[in-house]
Amino acid sequence: MKPADMDAVFHALASSHRRKILDIVKSMPGSSVNDVCKYFEMSRIAVMKHLKVLEAANLVISQKSGRARELYFNAVPIQLIYDRWTTEYSKFWASHVTDIKFKAEAKRRAHERDD
Hints:
Layout: H1 3-13, H2 16-27, H3 33-37, H4 44-56, E1 60-65, E2 68-73, H5 76-114
Antiparallel strand pairs: 1-2
Helix pairs in contact: 1-4, 2-4
């Protein structure tokens, strides 16, 4: 994932309105802009501006269906960020936990021999 793409995802997720829109679209795949607007007191144009930011971050995919737009949540950008950050930390901690495990088992075996 390019840094600019990652910045777009973090920017999109920084707004509580956009996070709520993602929750709505995730729970109602194929929902329309009108469906999303029902959950907000802001104008349809304001909701569409938020959707544009979410689409730019590739978090929402919209498809034309006649005159309506169907909205779908795309978790891939979030998963890519998750994988990037957790993989390195997971390796770090997994190797340390493995070292502790082997040291504890060696100590236990040494203690059992002494008894």
